[in-house]
Automatic annotation (TrEMBL):
<feature type="domain" description="C2H2-type">
    <location>
        <begin position="49"/>
        <end position="76"/>
    </location>
</feature>
<dbReference type="GO" id="GO:0000981">
    <property type="term" value="F:DNA-binding transcription factor activity, RNA polymerase II-specific"/>
</dbReference>
<keyword id="KW-0539">Nucleus</keyword>
<keyword id="KW-0862">Zinc</keyword>
<feature type="domain" description="C2H2-type">
    <location>
        <begin position="77"/>
        <end position="104"/>
    </location>
</feature>
<dbReference type="Pfam" id="PF00096">
    <property type="entry name" value="zf-C2H2"/>
</dbReference>
<dbReference type="GO" id="GO:0000785">
    <property type="term" value="C:chromatin"/>
</dbReference>
<feature type="domain" description="C2H2-type">
    <location>
        <begin position="21"/>
        <end position="48"/>
    </location>
</feature>
<keyword id="KW-0863">Zinc-finger</keyword>
<dbReference type="GO" id="GO:0031519">
    <property type="term" value="C:PcG protein complex"/>
</dbReference>
<feature type="domain" description="C2H2-type">
    <location>
        <begin position="161"/>
        <end position="188"/>
    </location>
</feature>
<keyword id="KW-0805">Transcription regulation</keyword>
<protein>
    <recommendedName>
        <fullName>C2H2-type domain-containing protein</fullName>
    </recommendedName>
</protein>
<keyword id="KW-0238">DNA-binding</keyword>
<keyword id="KW-0677">Repeat</keyword>
<dbReference type="GO" id="GO:0005667">
    <property type="term" value="C:transcription regulator complex"/>
</dbReference>
<dbReference type="InterPro" id="IPR013087">
    <property type="entry name" value="Znf_C2H2_type"/>
</dbReference>
Amino acid sequence: LISIVFHKVRHQRVHTGEKPYPCPDCGKRFAHSGGLREHERIHSGEKPHSCSVCGKSFTQKGSLRVHLRTHTGERPYSCSVCGKSYTQNEFLKVHQRTHTGERPYSCSVCGKGFAQIGNLKKHQRIHTGEKPYQCPECGASFTQKDSLKMHQRSHTGEKPCVCPECGKGFRDNGHLKVHLRVHTGEVDLTIEGYQCLKTLELSTMWFFK
């Protein structure tokens, strides 16, 4: 009888929103003591749930279950529109916005909407001027990590984007696309055409800064 009453009281918190268990470190509250115990591992660093395949450890058992799918290949959450599948329901929800057009995250400055909060944060740097990714070679700063990686190729000489027609290498897809116009005939090889091509290349370089 005591057990039945306990579970009834515990369940009622779903409806009442009561959260009687506060975290002593950050104040976040929980409906159940078990939820608080799992949360406290964030502060203590304890990770008692280990992957039997690679040894990676997690604070929560649920996180371990999700991680194991990277080894098993299991993707239980499928899109009803295109059939694409995901390891987590949250990833599926984000993907479905490509079909619905939903953009729940809006920029407070210009109103532009985004499907993912991460993309909103990247966009906001346009307004704030924040450039958190700095090149260790020359000190140039960038708003996005991918832009920094692309820039670093100017120091390393890496040119991973190769033209399928002539084998010439480029440090980014933008330069490769401009170059491909020579082969398709969109850009001629006269002096005027060459100057036009160089202008396109320079504008592409500016875009990726």
